[in-house]
Amino acid sequence: MIIDKETLEHVASLARLEITPDEDGSLLGDLERILGYVAQLGSVDTSAIVSKRPAMTELRPDEPGEGLTREAGLGGAPAMRDGFIVVRNVMGGEDE
């Protein structure tokens, strides 16, 4: 598979990577080789391979049941205020 510079830049932005112009060429080659290996794996016949894990053929029925009370569900919280869990401020601003 041939990867162009635009595709490389798109993948890098999705991965939040900053690529310098010096890295473009080697990364293009690396990505093409990786995709080539993946294509090779896709062409391998795996029909004769038997899974060692048992197949899940039947699931239990999904039936409504008793849930936790608010106190039981929130009982392990380190701190509560007005019925809510208190957490450390991670967005900035002033703590209350």
From TrEMBL:
<dbReference type="Pfam" id="PF02686">
    <property type="entry name" value="GatC"/>
</dbReference>
<dbReference type="GO" id="GO:0016740">
    <property type="term" value="F:transferase activity"/>
</dbReference>
<keyword id="KW-0648">Protein biosynthesis</keyword>
<dbReference type="GO" id="GO:0006412">
    <property type="term" value="P:translation"/>
</dbReference>
<comment type="subunit">
    <text>Heterotrimer of A, B and C subunits.</text>
</comment>
<keyword id="KW-0547">Nucleotide-binding</keyword>
<dbReference type="GO" id="GO:0005524">
    <property type="term" value="F:ATP binding"/>
</dbReference>
<keyword id="KW-0808">Transferase</keyword>
<dbReference type="InterPro" id="IPR036113">
    <property type="entry name" value="Asp/Glu-ADT_sf_sub_c"/>
</dbReference>
<dbReference type="InterPro" id="IPR003837">
    <property type="entry name" value="GatC"/>
</dbReference>
<keyword id="KW-0436">Ligase</keyword>
<dbReference type="GO" id="GO:0050567">
    <property type="term" value="F:glutaminyl-tRNA synthase (glutamine-hydrolyzing) activity"/>
</dbReference>
<dbReference type="GO" id="GO:0006450">
    <property type="term" value="P:regulation of translational fidelity"/>
</dbReference>
<comment type="similarity">
    <text>Belongs to the GatC family.</text>
</comment>
<dbReference type="GO" id="GO:0070681">
    <property type="term" value="P:glutaminyl-tRNAGln biosynthesis via transamidation"/>
</dbReference>
<protein>
    <recommendedName>
        <fullName>Aspartyl/glutamyl-tRNA(Asn/Gln) amidotransferase subunit C</fullName>
        <ecNumber>6.3.5.-</ecNumber>
    </recommendedName>
</protein>
<comment type="function">
    <text>Allows the formation of correctly charged Asn-tRNA(Asn) or Gln-tRNA(Gln) through the transamidation of misacylated Asp-tRNA(Asn) or Glu-tRNA(Gln) in organisms which lack either or both of asparaginyl-tRNA or glutaminyl-tRNA synthetases. The reaction takes place in the presence of glutamine and ATP through an activated phospho-Asp-tRNA(Asn) or phospho-Glu-tRNA(Gln).</text>
</comment>
<dbReference type="GO" id="GO:0050566">
    <property type="term" value="F:asparaginyl-tRNA synthase (glutamine-hydrolyzing) activity"/>
</dbReference>
<keyword id="KW-0067">ATP-binding</keyword>
